[in-house]
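Justification of computing resources. Each target in the renewal requires a structure prediction run like the one illustrated here; the chain below, 303 residues long, is used simply to show the kind of job we budget for.
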Amino acid sequence: MELGMVGLGKMGGFMTERLLQGGHRVVAYDRTPSVVQGLVGKGARGADTLDKMVAQLKAPRVVWLMVPSGAPVDQTIEQLLPHLAEGDTIIDGGNSYYKDTMRRGAALAQKKINFVDSGTSGGVWGLKEGYSMMVGGDAELIKRISPIFQTLAPGPDKGWSRVGPTGSGHFVKMVHNGIEYAIMQAYAEGLDLLRHKKEFNLDLLQIGKIWQYGSVIRSWLLDLTVDALSKNPTLEGIAAYVTDSGEGRWTVIEGVELGVALPAISSALDNRFRSQDPEPFANKLLAMMRNEFGGHAVKKTAS
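Resulting structure tokens:
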């Protein structure tokens, strides 16, 4: 098949490479010309504007978006629409909020433009390992364009599937990332506890390697953790600051709206928020309250 790829960051670029290796014809567009040229050197066709990209595609066209969630997705769709026709398909492979996806799908349906959401996981490892894709949209349409997903996935019949109507793919990916938050937090807390047991002088890298085989908590995430510790056992130069890209927040909000308890995911999200505050005001208040009611000493900051 052929398709246009919009957004050639690390993940979008690696996805394009995998599609090219699978024999697909890809027309690549990115706001950075040098990135486009890099993929042209690997077999893609390049375009320096969205309209030139669309012009190189045969109808019915398929355009895959790998742009940041929120306004950039809406802006890209708005720029594409004048150059698309009835029956063309837009696939959003980024981490969009599922309610935005549902809104976009309904609006595009009015124009008879197909919209598919592919919650995509795999990061920089996807080029080699394949991508996990949770796909939402019309069943017959997804069947027609399935060669794209079959090439990007770890195998034609594994690691991807249609999970439901438009919006469901991004909803499932949102929950996937919420689970990811909690698993990461559990590994981080457990290893930190081991590190604090000074009397045993435990080797975290050694323990991680033990857990990689036969253990009930072995996983790819553990493999990545072991790999990171092998390169930097003391995490020297790494700030204790953890970003959150949005999916964890959306997952917790959905839990509140549906009345579903998510204590592990919520706690993991809270920990990320706390890590982002260099001087937590709440902790300062706690210290002051102890001083007020009990006369407990307050540790002063360096002036």
